[in-house]
Amino acid sequence: MTWKWLHGEATPKADFGVPLSLTDYELCIYDSTGIVTRACAPAGGTCDGQPCWRDISHGYKFRQRDMSAGLKNGLQIILKEGTDGKAAITVKGKGMTPIVPTLPLSQPVTVQIINSSRSCWQATYSAPALENDAGAFKDKAD
Hints:
The protein is mainly β. The chain has strands at 2-8, 25-31, 34-41, 46-47, 50-51, 53-56, 59-66, 73-80, 87-94, 109-115, 120-125, 131-132, 137-138. The chain has one domain. The protein has no helices and 13 strands. A hairpin with a 6-residue loop joins strand 7 and strand 8 (73-80).
């Protein structure tokens, strides 16, 4: 699963809060029937023997991998500050993080990432999708 909020409205780094120690994040995906999956990235913490969150140039990065049974599953979130059209958020999940919803999805689909400071970024995907079948959902935001 990959979600990209690209070319977003102006977002200063301060809007992301302090995920290194205070600000939790949650990604939620909704279709017309309600919530279909979610993934959480709590503030602070240790993942794979290192801090889950890192301060990077112009934002923050979260990475948690599950290497159990030799599988490369996990969750990655990149929060990038920027002026209008330059801010971006990328979420990648592989394996069971987040849980893959039953496809096809019933549009409209809304993807939302919200932090515990109540800042929210979202995109809506109205029908028809570029691809929406039992194998994949792919579309461009409205």
